[in-house]
Amino acid sequence: MGTVELPVVVGVDGSDAASDALDWAAEMAGRRGLPLRVVHASLWERYEGYIPGTAADRPAERLHSEAVLAGAAERAGRRVPALKVMTDLAADDAVTALLRAGKSAEALVVGSRGRGEFASLLLGSVGLGIAARAQCPVVVVRGRPENVRGGMNRVVVGIAERERPAEQEPAPASAAVAFALREARLRGGELEAVHAWRCAGPEDHARPGNHGGRGNHGGPGDHARPRNHGGRGDHGAHEDQGARETQGTRETHGARETHGARETQSAREAHEQRATELLDETLGGATAAGLPPVPVAHRPVEGSARKALLDASAHADLLVVGARRRQGHFGMQLGLVNHAVLHHAKCPVAVVPVS
């Protein structure tokens, strides 16, 4: 009995952004040798909300929906000759229609903006809801034209830190890595694996407080030293003592700063080594699963994950991130970093569910 070929599903609404998503999805399906399923939702958004009913109840809208689907199918066929294209006019809202289609899909592709139910897709709950709740990888086609066209020959994958060391549990990004490796191989490009790490600065050493007297800055010997209560000698002695204390304080602070700098450098090296080991471990596990070899660049980056991935997206055809499923909830935990790249990445973003 042959293996069932799951299609690549794309949502369309006739907008320019949806056309970009359609082109991207058609090429993805062509690379993978899969059919393309084009979905158009027939409920229409109004300022007062969704109006119940199907497009069949409104002939003009039905004609429009059919024209959108026919035009999309023709465009996909021109883009990738011999591609098998199926169309689906869904009498439902966009999120429900696409989530349903995503249950039996290789991947779900949407645009970053649209009209009607796809309007401002990533600015509200629609696109984020699809990315967080779909059962298959979701690709949001966004970014600069040169990145969307796919001329960078590079796929970037973000590698997350393990939540806990568990032998039986795969690294959170393993499913994302497998998806990214395959996409890089099919594109004939390289994979860049990014893991961001941070090292806290040296602990601030408590400086002696000034609570009303020079004695607070001195050692026990200050109280044992005889004091001259008569004349300028006393003033001179205090000046000499103050100079010695100032010099001693500077030397102490200098030693602390040197020690702190050494500790910081040592900590930085340890964090960077840990990041490198995490990349090696995660990528090694994915390649051991039988995927063909792909040129891979390991890139541990000091700084925030958000900035590291957004910077990497500037020279990528696709940015892949993982999203962990939440126990007892319908959907996944996208997290702040995934939210950031969905809104601001300079290339298309794939969100891959991780069990």
* Low-pLDDT regions: 45-51, 116-124, 163-168, 202-233
What is the radius of gyration computed over CA atoms, rounded to a whole number of angstroms? 30 Å
Gap between N and C termini:
27 Å
Give average pLDDT, whole number. Answer: 76
Helical run tally: 10
| Approximate helicity band | 40-55%
- Please state roughly what percent of the residues sit in beta strands, choosing from under 5%, 5-15%, 15-25%, 25-35%, 35-45% or over 45%: 15-25%
The biggest beta sheet is recorded as: 11 strands, mixed
Q: What is the N-to-C succession of helices and strands?
A: EHEEEHEHEHEHEHEHHEHEEHE
Question: Would you state the CATH class of the largest domain?
Answer: Alpha Beta
Feature tags:
Rossmann fold; 355 residues; two-stranded antiparallel sheet; Universal_stress_UspA; UspA domain-containing protein; UspA; 18% strand; 11-stranded mixed beta sheet; Rossmann-like_a/b/a_fold; elongated
Q: Layout of SSEs?
A:
Blueprint (H helix, E strand, L loop, with lengths): L7 E4 L4 H17 L3 E6 L3 E2 L2 E2 L8 H21 L5 E6 L3 H9 L4 E5 L13 H9 L4 E4 L3 H5 L4 E5 L15 H14 L2 E8 L23 H4 L7 H56 L8 E7 L2 H9 L4 E8 L6 E2 L1 H10 L4 E6 L1
Parallel strand pairs: 1-2, 1-6, 2-5, 6-7, 8-9, 8-11, 9-10, 11-13
Antiparallel strand pairs: 3-4, 7-13, 11-12
Pfam families: Usp
Family: Belongs to the universal stress protein A family.
Protein name: UspA domain-containing protein
